[in-house]
Queue: 3 jobs
Job 1
Amino acid sequence: MSGREPQPLTVTLSALPRLAPRTSSFIDVRSWVFWAGLALTVFGIWRWTPLVVTSLSSNPTTGVLSAILWLLYGFVFLVLLYRLELFERRSPATVIGALLWGGLAGPGMGVVAAPAMHDLVAAVIGSDNPWVPSFAAPLVEEPLKLLGVLALALIPGARVRSAADGLFYGAVVGLGFQASEGFLYTATFSAESGTGTVTAMFLLRGIINGLWSHATFTAVAGAGLGYFFNASADLRRRITVLVGTLALAVALHGFFDAPILGPNPFVSSIVKGLPVLLLFLVVLRWAHLRERRTFAGLAAHVVPDNLVSPGDFTALATRRARRRARRWARKRGGYMTARALKRLQGAQLSLLTASHEDGWGSPRTEELSRDVRILAATVDRRQAEWDSRR
Amino acid sequence: MNPAEPPAAPTTETIEVLRRRLPLSIRLIGRSSVPGALLVLAIAAVFIGVVPLAAKIQLNSAQASGEIIAVGNAIGLTVANDWGVQSQDGRATVLSSGSSHLVIAPAYEEQRSPAQVVAAEVSRLEGDESGAWVVGEPGPFVTAQGDGGATVAASSETAATQVWAVAHDGLTTVAVLSTTIESWSSAQPRAQEMVDSIVFSREPGNGASPGVSP
């Protein structure tokens, strides 16, 4: 997919002086997009909160239990998403912004739009048609979730600078949406019942059907949006990828909600979920390869070799390579050397990230270059101490 | 890159290529954010303004809000806002609002209590092969006229349903709401409103048993 895009352009851009974003996260009070996003989040809270309050007050026990379960669910999957990051640690403030969009703005607007879309689809294909949810839900939810990633991409400080960034923030928005929606449905339907319904709802929506749900769909669309904003390919190609990945997310969501494959939720979920998961992994691989190619180019052509050489990048390119390098350092220089190398690897990756995001010569790259020099000297010192003890 | 070498200076050709193919994310830096904000608000307006308006226009052609309708010979109810009568025959009256339906059976003579009627519905839902339902626990409720009843709600991944049974002087009626889970928060309060407005007024109809199902 990325074969036709000339790599040197992306890399050359990082070598040229340019303006840097004025903030380190999406919180940019001088950006109208920030205020538009905030206004829509307030709208979402206004529409979403009464439903949440009703669910909690109808039965505080099941409401609180639902909240705890879905918060834990969101937390566990957020940690997993962080583990999926190949090179960079994204700004926690921007990640929280994406979660807030997914958990409040998206569902709050969905409360207004989703029933209306169901009514419109029902008017077209018949209100008794069991396919109504599989057409209506994705047509509302996928664009509304992606709108959050679009808002982030339009704020330069959020640094949505690659397909991998779009994928990551899409997954975070989707996760927030899933946890918020799952909580509301669980709390609502268990309010008149009991904790047994909470468990059953959580199993159905979180485990059986949730493992390849909203986060996966929005990650796919988010990768396309990240490509649209960051590729140097021509506009037609970028629009094709953006519209194509959004259409794919809508289709995957519709397929997942489709009334096919019988009543057994386990069989249905696995048979429907596996293709969804496979497609997600393909998009993830594509985004990671693009990211790795850019970073390899930066190490080869932009960042000085005494900071990150192409050889260094070979040992940074994958998590496995980094672990292997640390194991080797531990064997050869002991635990302290391996620990120092881990910190050096983190600083080198941050330097490559900063070069990509803000350009070489930016204040961030200058600061991180100093860090890399100090940490490289520390690794050498630890190694020397180890050698002198032996 | 060798530390002694500065990054290669771009040629005129490179600069021209860059000008044409500079990624959008970089072109946005330092530019006005107003167009982006308007784009975000416009997309949101489609979903929270245009789509609901279109649905409202669609619904207005069929709604009968505020109307009191007779269901069989023995009960009447007030149609809620945005709802309309889809069909009526001797077996059931079907009210609808978009993708949501409320099916109400005419009153019939029933020996069982509303709780027992609802318990039978629970068994039916649990054995339903058309969807994997998470069925709640049945609970009591009272209509605006003071008639006692029982109700239970259930949901699947994409659908939601609620069954009510109301009894009055040996007569019982059953109402079933069927909707999508996304429409539940807007459909359920209206359906509850209509069930609460049920008034038993005359003798039972032809004695037909309810033929309603979600």
Note: The longest helix of chain B spans residues 34-60.
Job 2
Amino acid sequence: MRKFCVGDAHAFQLLYERHEKPLYRYVRRMMGIALASHADDIFQDTWMRLVDARDSWQARDNASFKTWLYTIAHHRAIDLLRKSGREVSVDEGWLDDTSEEPWQLWPASSAEQPEQQAFWRKAGQQLLHCLDGLPALQRAAFILHHDDGLSLEEITQVLNAEFETVKSRLRYALSKLRTCMGAYLQPLF
Amino acid sequence: MSLHDEHLKLALRHAPDSELAPDALIRETVLAYANAHLQASSDSKLSCLQKWFRFSHVANWQLASMASVAATLLIAVVLWQQRPDDTIWADALPTITSADLSKQATENKLAKAAPAEKALASLLPQESSPVSAARERETRQPQLAKRSEPSLARHDNDKLAIANAPHTGLLNVPPASTLSDTGAADLAKTIASSAVDSSTSLLAALRQNGGKVMASKDIQAGKLRLFKIHVQSIQAKNTCTEHSPRTPEVDKVSTYEIEVIEAYEASEQLQKLLHDEVEIYNETMLEWHANRER
């Protein structure tokens, strides 16, 4: 990013290639199935905003490029979700305090057997449906942490939220997703 | 409860959309936009500054604050530069000794003056210094000298009047006989800065010789006359330039012609000193006339 800031076009191309798919995935999952068609617009707009604001990036302290990129994308996604009325409100009562659930016994297989691949693919499809039911900020916290590998501290920057708030949202998201996925994966036990 | 779930992570990784990528058209658009942006910004560094102001770093209220501070500073600087600096006079006034004064009055000031001033300087008799002439008259007329020893502080206003006066025909000049050493220096400076005209010549002669000596010289030369000071403003001088010359006045007792010395914008103290010097001249002249009549 520093090279791009001083005018290196090739550096920007490398940045784009490195973050293209993960960012697009994040935007698309944030939009959900109903608003998937807006993912392209948000994705493109995110990069253009980044190009416009490249000079301001230099002034940021200890902010990684990835965090900054996802912050821009997140704000654009939340804006569109709010305009469309698709943002699901936080339901605090949905959290189940029982931490040990049967789904935790799922086979965390690292093998790539065709059967298991099919199993995880179906699980992934189900997970996308489950994500659709989450409030936007819980969904964002879960995706950023589990798919994009951001730490909790980085997520606090992207979501512009307190550390404890991020932890709380992530806890709610996991609880709901485990409940949602548990029934679907029951035959595997 | 752990905040990380490997099972959900694995499921997410195998989700059907995990291999999705944006359109190639989006990729081309973004890269082209970045290239165009780089080209444009390299053309003008000013645009970087504009962007810096435009994006999030400086809010409107911050811009307003900076503008207010800048305007205040500008006004302060302008007002400060317009304020007269009192220390200028203090610095300009040297600690004058008699030797310094003679240099100032006769050489330095006149040497630095404009050509017209140099012409005036050439009119002045150089045989005696202004200081010695002034001291000589002070010894001869102690009562007048005592009355008119001006301090440096008392001359501040006069210096301002001299400095503010135009250089053409302004005779706001105190007579040398009534000035202290520094006053004589100011007188020399004032005369040097005046233009050459008849009134200036008279003043220069008065300054150089004093009223009594000048009267004696005039008597020896057969110039029997009296003087009269006429003080008026610069506006009056400018408006009266077209007027016809005055009919000469004549003293009824001595029948001597009274020559009028024009003085413009003279301060009260200067007028007083000027009148004193002329008064000495006239008294000397009338006294000689009275003696001759007897």
Note: Chain A has nine helices and no strands.
Job 3
Amino acid sequence: MAELWDQWELSVLTVLAGILSSLPCAWLGCFLMLRRLSLMGDAISHAVLPGVVVAALLTGELTGWPIFLGAVVVGLFTAFLTRGLSQLGHVPDDAGMGVVFTSLFAVGVLLISQFASQVDLDPGCVLYGLIDFIPLDTVNRFGWEIPKAYFSLVPCLILTGSFVLLFWKELQLSSFDPNLASAVGFSADLIHYLLMALVAVVSVSAFEAVGSVLVVAMMIVPPATAHLLTDRLGRLVVIASLCCVTSSLFGYWGAIYWNTSTPGMMAVVAGVQFGLAVVFAPHHGLVSKGLHQLRLALRIMSEDIIGGLFRAEELAQEAGLSSEIPWRTCREILGQGRLTSLAFAWLRFRELIRPTPRGGILLTDEGRRRAQSLVRSHRLWEAYLQKYFHLPEDHLHAPAARLEHYIGPKLQEKLEEELDAPHTDPHGRQIP
Amino acid sequence: MFSADFLSYNTMIVLVGTSLLGGTSGLIGTFAVLRKRSLTGDALSHAALPGLCIAFMLWGERNLFVMLLGAFFSGLLGIGIISGLRAWTRIKEDAAIGIVLSVFFGAGIVLSRLIQNRVSAGSKAGLDSYILGKTAGMLSYDVYLIAGLACGSLIVVLALSKEFQLISFDTPFATVQGWPALFLDLVLMSLIAIVVVIGLPAVGVVMMAALLILPGASARFWTERLPSMIQISIVIGFLTGAVGTLASATFSLMPAGPLIVLVGTGFFLISVLFAPRRGVVARQLHELSFRRELAQQRLLNLFLGSDKTLKPEIALSEISTTRSSFPGIERSLDLALREGVLQSDDSRTFRLTNYGRTLAVQVHQRDLLRHLIWNERPDLAAYCQADDDLDELLRNSTPEAIELRTRLEQRGELLSKALPSGGAL
């Protein structure tokens, strides 16, 4: 029983470490994403390496504030240098960023290889982190066995949380409209560099625990997932946080199940969540976009069908013939596409058309009413185009055939007013 | 220069390999930088990892070619996902790159740990070296591969140079002209993917991204023409690989990957700072001389009296009243004295020299011409941007120029009064 408890405690502490280290990443990541600086997170989390190594060499240990100081210095240096390269040297933004962070990372790797004996740090540990060992390395505080890593993760979380809360409106304004922010009086640049400094702090605190892979993943993927699910900044941050929690939970579970790398699995779970959001998000997902387009296409096709039937009825009445249209003619005109069949089925279902016993189709009364409104829109628009745009007669039909689907009763009234209630369209047909 | 055992067979192999790799990355990287796809290389090198692992798992043993094939396809998949996210969702390109980079890399780590669990620990080192690179472990087989790749990509780029040039600078125009821009882009991306995949075992994920960006970004500073940019980029890439490897062979403790990148950074910094015309130093110097010229013009304008004649001399006290609106006037006066534009006996009053007089007339003449053009011939306003253009307008014998000159003479009493000799410039 006690053994089971220990096992459970280990899991809770590991998952908690994952959550604690990924939450600040995601919070900052939301603002980075809105400023299109997502890759700055990636760059800084690589570039802080030399700062960390130098600080560790000077102090002889891998914990404490000197590490953070080193990281902040190098992080800000990265941000300054990237900006300087693009402003002074006219280097494209992406190339400048790529040059700066890879060079700094190379310096870091070189330093590690030179002073490997003096620093307990290898590039592998920087990349993958040591999340599985966090619960094992504890100290006794307040009567509890608390993992050492928590003493850097929790302050970081509090720091980032209070920064986001305190500077909420500044962050909001400078993310969406940096020029307005500067004009109103708080410097967008200052906020930018504060954000960069915090990114550096958070990367260091987190990559000791979970490695730079997860830092980058959590800085970019949960905010992007949330971005697909909401349009409000507040909800963006909340949803991103939830994504962090679930990726930590399921990532840990998956890593245990397949006996593989925990941070890697957490990144993969975050990626899977993002993939689900891409496909199934309510407004911005592929499925909902596809359905929306299908619905629109179906509506336009159905309206074209009843509009065509209405015009055929008109012609037939003028010639004194039966207004019934043979089914086969209909299909020949409209083609054999699946969308056409679907549109016919839909019209039958809504009882806008009805089949006749002799194999033709007729508009129902409701269908005729709708079709009449549609043809009315079409002809009003043609008249309007002729009067105000002076288009030649043979150029009127095509734009009207497009726009007729989007002219509602209100716009019809307005058009009628502008045109002084005309009775016929430019082709001499009656406006119903 | 080097002793025989210094350039051992192994070092030679590595040297040839890294130089060729550097040259090839320079060739391909030029287009990546120009198309603003620098970080695509970074994403690609991260995205290649899971493919490497899956190929290893399917094949069951280390086979370089199969693994590179896997890496190539998963890299291309990553690039495809980036393009798809950009085209079909509201995710912006930078976030898309970050997502692919981190998730694919995470998946790669998961898979490599799985492999590590399944097979003996010995072969795991093979996968690890792809992340951080193991330059010293390069074999002659690798070098043949790189040499083949170098020739292949050179041939492709030469064959498609016109098309690549077009899509690098104006993709919409290329599309309108009927070139298959999407296909060409795919060819370019595949070339990048191949270079990255082959370079991965040599220099590792992060260093490969650097190798792709650095030569191209450096070469951009030295030239304005694509063919010479490609040549410079190849040379810089080649030198980067060679010098980095030699340095690592000299200081035996230093790993070659980071050294190569830092040598590349060195070339880049030299280019940023000291390249003629586009370099930071050249730009600053140019700006300085431009500022001096402007200050001199303002100084000469002080000699223009309200009645449009040139004052014979001007007192410092007179200038001092305008000091607040003319920052740095002392320096300009100093400079003008040294360049022989002004003369002064007591540093309190200043006279124009003959040379200064000519300059002052020139400046006034340009000013008058500018006003004339702005007020009466705005269609010629393009000439007002550069002094040289204005001077040419004053010398030309086109009908427009003659018309402007006669009008100038009709209005400007200045020329005759200012120049005792009758106004010839």
Note: Chain B touches chain A through 61 residues (CB under 8 Å).
